[in-house]
């Protein structure tokens, strides 16, 4: 039997008939609603470490990257410098929508990028150390930008409310059919490169 026959849920849920821009709009809806993602990095010993972080944005309608403001001296930056392959995931329990970015993280202290993504609330994560240098503002030397450039983005978006999902699952369980009360969408590497190319023009 083929993989599709053995995994009927994925086969039924997959829908890649949308344009790249339509896929990005669905993705942004999830990220903006969830507000906090889990950034997963790999340590030098091979262990995977995840932590909750609030992305800065998305700030544009075609943005496919994920950007975080972070402390340059934190362990996660050490891990990114050791292995830049990362994952960022989002989950919305109110809808069951989720999104997963797999890609490469780049660290920057570019002033323009920091200015673009800085918000007044960000200073709370740094604090003013009282030495006149580490003031917890956008000019603090600890401030860095983590930009995740995805190779692939996969996300699930519900096409039914919670009641509809429950009914679909119950009926499928009773009849031996496969439940799929939503769509599984993939933004491919080619689509990501296409959008990034259009954005930089």
Automatic annotation (TrEMBL):
Name of a matching Pfam family: Pyrid_ox_like
InterPro entries linked: Split_barrel_FMN-bd, Stress-Dev_Protein, YdaG_split_barrel_FMN-bd
Residue ranges occupied by any General stress protein FMN-binding split barrel domain in the UniProt entry: 23-178
Name used for this protein in its record: General stress protein FMN-binding split barrel domain-containing protein
């Amino acid at each position: 039997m083929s993989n599709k026959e053995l995994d009927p849920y994925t086969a039924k849920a997959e829908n890649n008939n949308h344009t790249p821009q339509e896929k990005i709009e669905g993705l942004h809806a999830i990220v903006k609603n969830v507000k906090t993602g889990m950034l997963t990095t790999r340590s030098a010993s091979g262990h995977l470490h995840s932590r909750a972080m609030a992305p800065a944005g998305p700030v544009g309608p075609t943005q496919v990257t994920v950007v975080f403001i972070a402390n340059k001296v934190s362990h996660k930056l050490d891990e990114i410098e050791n292995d830049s392959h990362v994952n960022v995931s989002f989950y919305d329990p109110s809808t069951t929508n989720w999104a997963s970015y797999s890609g490469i993280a780049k660290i920057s202290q570019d002033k323009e990028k920091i200015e673009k993504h800085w918000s007044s609330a960000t200073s709370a994560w740094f604090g003013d150390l009282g030495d006149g240098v580490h003031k917890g503002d956008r000019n603090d030397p600890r401030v860095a930008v983590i930009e995740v450039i995805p190779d692939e983005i996969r996300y699930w978006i519900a096409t039914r409310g919670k009641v509809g999902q429950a009914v679909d699952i119950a009926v499928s369980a009773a009849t031996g059919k496969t439940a799929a009360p939503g769509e599984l969408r993939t933004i491919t590497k080619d689509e990501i490169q296409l959008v990034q190319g259009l954005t930089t023009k």
